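lol forgot to send this yesterday, sorry. struct tokens for the thing we talked abt
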């Protein structure tokens, strides 16, 4: 397996960003945990975070040529706005799971709409960092 984990804008601030909503775990902690999990299963896992929509599009386009067979993505605020990131995932046709740390459905109405959910294999929201781990476990076993 070759898994790509993508993190959208402001997720580089995890640990200090609204910890009541997003938890105290840093992005480096999450990525290290996922890396260890993949290694245990003999899989390769790469992580990428960007605050820039186009950089996420470029990374998704590159994934196709790298033989990535599963993407785990938290599009963060782009969840609710980005046709471009959605189109990139549709273009490369790599199966993906959409992850949110918080339960977006019990938050503001503008967070209830996702440009990704109808294309995703599945959606995980509200389980904090454990949600990423569940997504990677699924990718490893499928
Ligand atoms: C988020 C939820 C989004 O609404 C928000 O814009 C984020 C993070 C989450 O992980 O809960 O930045 O995707």
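and heres what i got for the seq, position by position
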């Amino acid at each position: 397996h070759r898994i790509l984990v993508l993190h959208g804008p402001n997720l580089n601030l995890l640990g200090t960003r609204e910890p009541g909503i997003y938890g105290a775990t840093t992005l480096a902690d999450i990525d290290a945990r996922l890396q260890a999990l993949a290694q245990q299963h003999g899989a390769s896992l790469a992580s990428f975070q960007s605050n820039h929509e186009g950089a996420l599009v470029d990374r998704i386009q590159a994934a196709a040529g790298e033989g990535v067979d599963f993407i785990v993505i938290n599009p963060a605020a782009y969840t609710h706005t980005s046709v471009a990131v959605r189109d990139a995932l549709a273009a490369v046709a790599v199966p993906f799971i959409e992850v949110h740390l918080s339960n977006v459905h019990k938050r503001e109405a503008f967070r209830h709409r996702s440009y990704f959910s109808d294309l995703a294999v599945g959606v995980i929201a509200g389980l904090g960092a454990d949600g990423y781990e569940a997504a990677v476990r699924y990718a490893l076993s499928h």
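The beta strands are 2-7, 44-49, 70-74, 96-100, 122-125. anyway ping me if u want another try
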